Amino acid sequence: MNDHTRKITKKIILYLVSFFFLFIFIYPLYFVIISSIKTNTEIFTSPFKFPSEFHFENYKTAIEIGNIGRQFLNSMFLAIVTLVLTALAASMVSFAISRLRFKGQGAVRVYFVMGMMVPIQSIIVPLAWAINNFDIRDNYLILILLFTASHMPLATFIITGSMNSLPTSLEEAAIIDGCSIYKVFTRIVLPLVKPAIATVGIFVFMYTWNDLLVSMVFIGKAELRTISVGLLNFVGARKSDYGALMAAIFIAILPPLTMYLVLQENVVKGLTSGANK
Amino acid sequence: MERIRRNKKAVLCFLMPGFLLYTVLLMVPIGGSLVMSFFKWNGIKNVPMVFVGFSNFKAVITDAMFWHSIKNIMWFMVLTLCTQLPIGLLLAVMLSERFRGYRFFKFAYFVPQVLSTTVIGLLWYFILMPTGVLNTMLQGIGLDSLVKSWLVDKNTAMTTIILVNTWCGIGFHMTVSYAAISGIPDDVVEAAKLDGAVGLKKVFHIIIPMIWESIISSIVVIVTAVLKTFDLVYVMTEGGPNGLTDVPSTLLYKEAFRYNDFGKASVIGVYIFILSVIFTVISLRITKRERLEY
What we know:
Chain A has helices at about 5-35, 40-45, 55-65, 70-100, 105-115, 125-135, 140-165, 170-175, 180-190, 195-210, 215-220, 225-235, 240-265, 265-270. By secondary structure, chain A is mainly α.
């Protein structure tokens, strides 16, 4: 085999394997999209074919009977508020850890890192106890604070890392010019760690949007359900209305998918940020 | 300068909101979980908790279902490590050839990572159910003998869930490995090429040793993530049929919210937490030792 044919065989193999995996990773998504506009019988008899006619009434069923629209807004609200709160609280803590000087600074840093080892399931039982005894079921504020607390360790870790890599000369010049420590935070440090905050924002949004367990335990009222819980309930209620279920699923993946299409590498960075701890 | 950085009021101002939130809503509950594992409680308001000593721990330790769930989670870890990691690495090596269109493939392979586990669970449930896409497909190509109730059959249920989980995570490990491969200095690659390290030789003698640190960090991620698995199993089988596919966290959920045994559920929570700490510490130890010098 000469060099040229070897190169060509290599190319062919590369593309064959690439397309094989493309099918494996993308087919389920394709299946959701085409099935969401098919009739029930057509979904499973021809799972690869493009629909013969478009049945948009599946979306109507998902929204009217599944109440997916309301749940979409609920999850959106929770995810966005949690994102803002986490970014704010974690930036402030990071600033204290990275820039201020106080007793027990090292211990505080370790204390926040420790939280990364806490599996959320381990706090579900005390949570259920608190829900019963303090009457906080369906309280969105508490739910948001709970999400925020659970994202604090990773968020603080990422932002502290970014702040530590900044030179201190800029702030010191500002302080000499009479700038207060609060202004140093808002005017100098925060703008410089924007990329880290964006990374945190993306993973907090995704994780909150995708949460199932905490919302399942915490929320009782149907109109307050998040999209993941709503989807499960809809599946339970309309067991064999596959078209409508697929429409509901497609609605549920729209925000994260759009975010990925628009922000691409930033989303990848946000979702793999846990790997470098 | 130092005086300003040591300003106590500023320290409190910046630290307290996050510190309180984190302490009250994450760290205190972990302590609470430990406390509750010594009590019996049925989850009903105003019903007092009764101190029962270690009997919850004993009940869990002697429960065959618990050991079955531990067995499942161990199989989960092993199979995930043996599939997610090598396939992720294979794709990363392939993509680092930078052939035409590699960016598109890299983008597409990461898509499952963006979807929620609930959605993934439902999606694959519809593909794998008895009348689902997979069985239709198998029948279509004449492999009727392979048609199965993938998520019910006791030989396939757990493994099927694990492979769906593998599907979700490959993109993650591909991305991490790809970044590491891109970080290998060019002169190393060139020198290796001159020494005749191409193809598989290059992968095993150059790439893998050079990105060893990133592989270890992938292993840490897999082990700790698998331990936390809840959504996927809950959505696809709810741990059923008859506890066949239970993992510790679905068992915890059922003990608490189906059987109203919050004491026993707490104990499982404590075990998951302890396992998580042990695995993390072990993995971090290994990472430190294996750090490659070059």
